[in-house]
Structure formats: structure tokens, C-alpha cells
Amino acid sequence: MTNKKILFSGIQPTGEMHIGNYLGAIRNWVNLQNKGEYNCIYSIVDLHAITIDYDQKQYQNRILDLAATLLACGIDPKKSILFLQSSVKEHAELCWLLNTIIPVSELYRMTQYKDKSSKNEKNINIGLLDYPVLMAADVLLYGTEIVPVGEDQSQHLELTNIILKKFNNKFGEFFKKVNPYITTGAKIMSLNDPEKKMSKSIPGSYISLSDTPDEIRKKVSRAVTDSNFDKEMSHGVKNLFDLLLFFNAKEAHDKFLIQYKDKTIKYSELKSELADVIIKELEPIQYRKQELLKNPKKLKNILDSGAKQAQKIAMKNMIEIKKRMGLY
Ligand code: TYM
């Protein structure tokens, strides 16, 4: 590790990764890694994902599938640390310590908790409420200053800053302020319900990174649009225009925008061009992923070696944190 600023982010191994995750987070992870300005640490956050119902028999496969997807998108273990959260036990340990300084009322007001608990009424476990504290632990364990995420995570990062201020006030300045890195593409909307964000938990809302060209065409063709040309552009139509831009089809975007303003636009044509550019971007990723999945042992080795590097930093910081809290 050089003395560049630390950048940390995580993704859960729940369901298939979708183009919202890709545009809002992972593509930025890769760009930031390749810029070389930060020490980048990326984690598959398996401890977070077990706070909702999951299939434990399939869980190891899901994790390896996600590792292969991240590598296929361009995460390079020679440039970044990539590891599995549960392999570095200091995450859970620091979460417990931080639990003792954050009032429970702060956690009940988290939008994601309210949303997830209303969708999982039969499994509102303590982990679901504690999710943002574990997330704060992930970030603070490495002295992180930059966190690239989608817009839905900004409330959690605000809470991280509240937690670290409380810690610093009580135990002396140690943690640095955490800055979310949120770019365009940070809020991709659902295709079938464009008032809501694209989400793994809403079937039909997303295009998965492993969808076939046929599936992609079908899903895009079913995306919600309308012909209310005299009102402000609707969320559904705006989302399709945004997707054209994010998939680097500015020319097509501008062409359809003129047609939209003229009220001559045919959404079927826009959708067909959008599907083309999504397929073009995803095809090489899918090919690389299939190659990587042929060698699960190599994937495990990459995660293990990442965990060793991460733990080295984590252990050092934990000693300092525990000293300050009178535990060491
Ligand atoms: P997860 O797995 O739910 O999401 C991974 C990343 O994808 C972004 N994202 C989106 N971006 C744009 N449009 C969307 N529709 C969309 N849906 C998801 C998320 O914002 C996220 O950046 N809690 C985190 C995981 C985590 C984490 C951390 C992140 C755990 N510890 C520490 C940063 C730092 C999450 O939402 O994962």
C-alpha cells in the first residue's frame, strides 16, 4: 500500500448484478482503479446479504459468480484489493464496537431499513437494522476517504460520518471524513415501474449483466413509456434517454431527443437502438466471465489473497481503535 488516499466500496452477492449496479457503481470502480489516484479496496459483502432470506446451498456459487463478474468488468487484482467481507473478521468486530456508540433511533430512520423491513415482514432481524453500522465498519476499518456508490447509499454514508464524529469526539480524532463518490448513472430507474430504482428485488425492473441479447431486447421493448409530450418528460422516458447516454450513444440520444421535441419519436426505434448498445457493452464482459468461471479455484485464490492484504490493514487499525476504546 502506498500513501495514496483509501477508496473502499462493496457489493452484495444477492441475485444477478444488473445494469444499475454496473452504471451506478462498478464501472466507476474500474475507472477509479485505472486512474491510479487511490488505493482501491473492493469487497463482496456476504455478511450484509444474509440479512434478507437467501439460499445457503447456492451461496458459495453466487459469491464466485459475482467475483467472476467483477473481474470480467475490469477489476484487476494487481491494481485493487478484491476480497470477501466475511474472510476478514475485523468487519464484524468493528461493527460491534460501533454499535455501542450509535443510538438505535438513528437506525430506525434509515430509508433502506424501512423499505426492506416492509418487504420482508417475516424476517425483520437485528442484522437488517444494523446493516448501516456494518457498512460504516467496512469503510472505517481501512481509514477510507472515498466511497463510490449509487445514490441510494448516500444516507448510509451520512450515517457513517455521524458515527465517526461520535467516535472521534469520545475517543480522540482517528477516523477521517468519508466522501461519497456519486456520478451520473447513480440512480438507474426500474424499467417496468420507473418511479422506483432498478432493483434485484423487483422482477422485470432490471437488465442483468448475464442476460442474453434476446432477453435484453425483450426487457427493453417492454419498458414503460408514454406520449405526454406536452408535460415534463416522464421518468420512464427519461430513464431510456439516460441509458442511451450512459451506454455511450450520445449521437442516438441527440437524434431521438429532436424527434421527441418534434413529437415524431417512435419509441420502438429508440428501444431497438438502446438494446443494441447495451448488448454491445455487455457481450465482452459476458465472454470474459464465462472464461473466468471455468477456473473456480483461481477465483477463490484471488479472493483469499485479497483477504490477506485487507486483513493486514484491518488488524493494524483495529489495534489502534481498541486502544482508544480501552480494550487493548
Ligand atoms: P448493493 O449490492 O445493493 O449495490 C451495489 C452498488 O450498486 C448501486 N446501485 C445502483 N446504482 C444506480 N442505480 C440503481 N438502480 C442501483 N441499484 C444499486 C448501489 O448504490 C451500490 O453502490 N450497501 C451497499 C453495499 C455495501 C457498501 C459497503 C458499499 C456494504 N458495505 C461499504 C460501500 C461501502 C449496497 O447497496 O450494495
List the helices and strands and how they pair.
Elements: E1 5-11, H1 19-35, E2 38-44, H2 46-49, H3 59-73, E3 80-84, H4 90-99, H5 104-108, H6 111-119, H7 126-140, E4 146-148, H8 154-171, E5 179-181, H9 213-221, H10 235-246, H11 250-262, H12 267-293, H13 296-324
Parallel strand pairs: 1-2, 2-3, 4-5
Helix pairs in contact: 3-12, 4-7, 7-8, 9-12, 10-11
This protein binds tryptophanyl-5'AMP.
* DSSP summary: helix tally: 13
Rg, Å, rounded: 21 Å
Average pLDDT across residues?
96
DSSP strand count = 5
Q: Would you give the CATH topology of the largest domain? A: Rossmann fold
Shape: globular
Give, in order, the helices and strands: EHEHHEHHHHEHEHHHHH
Named at the architecture level, the CATH assignment of the largest domain is 3-Layer(aba) Sandwich
Considering the protein shown, what is the CATH homologous superfamily of the largest domain? HUPs
Segments where pLDDT lies below 50 for 5+ residues? none
Molecules bound to protein: tryptophanyl-5'AMP
Question: Roughly how many Å apart are the termini?
Answer: 25 Å
Strand order of the largest sheet: 1-2-3
CATH level 1 name of the largest domain: Alpha Beta
Number of domains: 2
Measured as a percent range, the helix fraction is 55-70%
Strand content: 5-15%
Instruction: Give the structural class.
Output: mainly alpha
Described by strand count, sense and barrel closure, the largest sheet is: 3 strands, parallel
